[in-house]
Amino acid sequence: MENVLKLTDMTMQFGGLKAIDSLNLEVNNHEIVAIIGPNGAGKTTAFNCITGIYTPTSGNIEYLNKSILNKEPEDITKRGIARTFQNIRLFKDLTVFENVLIAVHLRYNDNIFTSTFRFNRHQELAMREEVKVLLESQDLYKYRYDIASALPYGIQRRLEIARALATKPTLLLLDEPAAGMNPQETMELTSYIRKIRDDFGLTILLIEHHMDLVMDISDRIYVIDFGKLIAEGNPDEIQNNPHVIKAYLGVEDYA
Amino acid sequence: MKFKDRINIDLLIYVAIIVVSVIVLVFLDMNKFEYNYAISIIEKSLVYAVVALSMNIVTGFTGLFSLGQAGFMALGAYTTAILTIPANVRPNVYYMNGILPALENAVVPIPVALILGGIVAAVFASLIGIPVLRLKSDYLAIATLGFSEIIRAVIASPMMDKITNGSYGLKSIPGFKSSLECFVYSLILIIIMILIINSSTGRDFKAIREDEIAARSVGINIFKTKELSFVVSSFFTGIGGGLLAMFMRSIDSKTFSITLTYDILLIVVLGGIGSITGSIVGAFFVTAGKEILRFFDEPFAIGGVEIPLFRPGFRMVIFSILLMVVVLFFRKGLLGGRELSFNDFIIRKKNEKLKNVGKGGKA
C-alpha cells in the first residue's frame, strides 16, 4: 500500500515541555486513521507540525515520500494536505460561496492585473462553476449567500470541510470534526466522512474524542498520551489495550 | 449566476449618480465664481474619497492597521508637484536655494506625474513593507506612523532643499482646470480600486483579514498578499497625494503631518471599515460637515445674549461629539462593512420572504 504520510521520531518541544516525544506514525493511501488521546496529549500539536504551522524540534515528516519539513503552511496545502480546525476557522464575515471560492484560488494562477481588469474572466467563471458543483455535492448550495458566522454550528463544520475539499487535497486532516455534535449528528458525520473519502479519493487522518465514531470509522488508531505514542492498532486491538485503558481511566487494576 | 444578478440595479444607480454628478459639476464649473466654495468642498471630498478608499484596501479589506497615509501622500504630492510646476516659474518657487539642475526642465503631463507619484509611494511601501508587515495591529500602526513622520522630516530637511525646497514648500502647482477634471481622475481611481477589491486578489485580502491561519491553510501566501495590499494601497494613496497637491496648489511638509492621516482615518472609520461606499460617503460627510459646522465658530446670540461657547474652535468640539455618537451607536461606522446597495436590499427582502414561507410550511 502506498505511503501517504510518515512521521519519523518527530519531537516538538516548547521550552522545557515536550509536547510530542519522538512520534512515529504512518498513514497509507485511502486509509482513515485516527489519533486519540486525553486532553493535552499533543494531538493538535501533531497536526500543526504536519501542516507547517510549527516546525518540529527534531524528526522528519514525509508526504508522498518527500520531506515537507520547514515548508510554509501554504506550500503544504498546495502539495495536497488540507485541514480543518478544532475551533472552526471560517472566513466569518464572508458568504459561504466566497469561503469556498477563496480555497479554489490556489489552483488558478492570476495576478493582480489580470484579476483587476477581468482578463481572467474565464478562470473566474471556471472557479465559480467549480465552487457551485462542490457546494451542490455537499448540499450547501442553498446557503451560498449566507454569511458563514450566521450558519448553525453543524453547517459551519461541513462548510469548513467543503472549504478544505476545494483545495483538492490528497490527505485531509480533521481536527475533532464531531466536537459539539449530538449522537445523531455524529452518526451522520461518520457516514459523511466515509462518503467524502470515497467520492474524492482521500486519505484521512483525524483527531476525535467521540469513541463511537473513532471505533466505527478508523482503519487504524494511534493513541497518544503526554506526547508519547502508547498504542497503535485496529479498533479492536485498541479497545483491549491495557495501556489505553490506563491512560483513559487512570487505574492500575483493569478488569 | 451571482456574477450576473449582482450587476443590474446597482450598476444602473451608480451610472445615474455619475451622470447627475457630471451635470451638476458642469453647471458649477460654468458658474465658477458664484460657487467657488462648493466647488472647493467637492474637490476636496473627491480627493479624500480616493485616499480613504486606498486606506480601506489595507485597513478595512486586509485588516492591516496602517497609519502611514500622510507619508505616502507626501511622496505622491511632492513627486507630482516637482514634475508639474511650469519650468518658467521654477526659479521663483526655488528662490531661496535654487533647484537641482536635473530637475530644472523636468516637466511631464499631469496624468504621468500622478502615476509616477503613485509609483514612488509604491516603491517606498514595498521597501518598508518587508520589515514592517511582520508586525501585528498596534505595532504595525506605530511603525507606519513613524515612517510617515520620517518622510516628512526628510522632505523638510536642508539636504533636500534643491529638490523639495525644504521648509519653504512648493507653490504654483497647476491645479484642476475644472471640478470635472478632478471628478474624472477620482472616478477612474475609485473604479480601479473597486475592481481590485472585488477581484480574486481582493478576496485573498479579505481572507487574510478574516483569519490568517485559515487563509494559510487554503494556500494563500500571507506575506506576499499583505505586501501586495500594502503596495497597491500606497500606490493609490500616492496618487491621492498628487491630487491633493493639485487641489491645494501649494504644499509644504506640514501639510502631511499626522493630522492628515487622522482625517483620513476618521473618514474610513466613520464610513465603515471595509465598506467602499462608506469611504466615499464618509469623505463627503466629513469634509462637508467640517465646513457646514463653521457657523458654530461665529458669535451667536439668543435674544441679545451672546452664547459664550460660540467662538473659533467650537465647531471641532461639536464635530468630535458627533464622532463619538457615531462610534458609540454605530460601532462599525455608518455602513459597518456593508455597502449601500439596492441589490443586497432586494435579496435580503426576498430571503426573508422565503424563510417566512418555509416556516409557515413547517408549522
Would you give an account of this structure?
The complex is a heterodimer of chains A (255) and B (363). Chain A has 255 residues and is of the alpha/beta class. Helix content of chain A is 38%, strand content 24%. Chain A has helices spanning 43-50, 73-79, 96-104, 112-116, 121-137, 153-166, 183-200, 211-217, 235-239, 242-249, and strands at residues 3-14, 17-28, 32-36, 58-63, 66-67, 81-83, 171-175, 203-207, 220-225, 228-233. The longest helix of chain A has 18 residues, at 183-200. The mean pLDDT of chain A is 91. Chain B is an all-alpha fold and 363 residues long. Chain B has a single domain (2-358), classed as ABC transporter involved in vitamin B12 uptake, BtuC (Orthogonal Bundle). Chain B contains 15 helices and two strands. Chain B has helices at 2-30, 36-61, 69-84, 90-93, 110-132, 137-156, 161-164, 179-197, 200-210, 212-217, 222-248, 258-271, 276-292, 314-329, 342-362, and strands at residues 301-302, 305-306. In chain B, strands 1-2 form a two-stranded antiparallel sheet. In chain B, a hairpin with a 2-residue loop joins strand 1 and strand 2 (305-306). In chain B, helix 3 (69-84) packs across helix 11 (222-248), helix 5 (110-132) packs antiparallel against helix 11 and helix 12 crosses helix 13 (276-292). The longest helix of chain B has 29 residues, at 2-30. Chain B is globular, with a radius of gyration of 22 Å. Classes of the chains: A alpha/beta (255), B mainly alpha (363). Chain A binds chain B through residues 51, 53, 72-74, 77-78, 82-83, 85, 89-94, 97-98, 101-103, 105-106, 108, 110-112, 115-118, 120, 124-125, 127-128, 132, 144-145, 163-164, 166-167, and chain B through 1-3, 192, 195-196, 199-204, 206-207, 210-211, 213-222, 228, 232, 274, 337, 347, 351.
